[in-house]
Known about the structure:
alpha/beta, globular
Amino acid sequence: MLSTVHFKRYSALSREILIYRNILPGSPGKMQAFRGLLRDPQRGIPRPTVNSMTLKGNDAKLEAAATPIEANGKMKRKEYEKELRKLQVELCRLQDWVKFKGRRAIIVFEGRDAAGKGGTIKALTERVSPRVFRVLALPAPSDRERTQMFVQRYIERFPAAGEIVIFDRSWYNRAGVEYVMGFCTPEQHRRFLELCPGIEQVIIESGIQLIKIWLEVGQQEQERRFEARISDPLRHWKLSPMDLESYRHWYDYSKARDSMFEATDRKYAPWHIVHSDDKRRARLNCISHILNLIPYKKVRREKIKLPKRSAKGKYDDRASLKGRNIVPQRY
């Protein structure tokens, strides 16, 4: 089982976070007000530090860092891109093997808001086929889906032969955001944690490989990323009302995470924790670990040679476009 993270109790924010509907893009005064609320409301109180989590037991391939990566030790872009390309070549080989053998796999990405799930998934999938690596980020359940069994809308999107399905958040919403924010009852939360291991065991016994990734971001780094989302117009879309509300509940989410690990970290479906304060290192570590978890071999390909084009019916096929709506070449 995973060891829990013990936090020194920290004095809660004493001021209310700005109501979300009043935070509008292009409103500097309102943005500045929210920035103030992100910072400590009381001077002289030290910021809490997060103790590192070490992984024990069955996953000897992943060795969690003893301490979170320091800001001045972050990986440079050139080094990152070089290593990422190597891993993406291996992902293409994995893709060929999954198609060749008809394998099925599910990769679940969970973590706090701004932990880096989206960026990691993008790095994982940007060089492979979306028909093999299918990414799913489901919206809030519809009225009809709310009447279904909780995991039903996820099960119907499970992989067929030759597919890897990646869930950007998953059925574990019930263990995290739904429980913390009051969208489910304590009894529903307890029942989910009780049933989830059994459901996952059935998934695995059906022949689907299940990989569960948790991205662990520290308090200060999460705050920095929220600040960046507020300041940068290109990132405003990343800042949702739920993100702002969840910011207030750091320790509630910590307790929910610990309960989730305690109940669902099993030998047949372990959690794999990636420290993500350094996004680039986190992406590389995560992709490398996934490649170690899914057995694959390089599929031998026949040498490809372009066939000779036929000149039958030859004509000026560019001239025939004259008079059509051509996009102006502004660049």
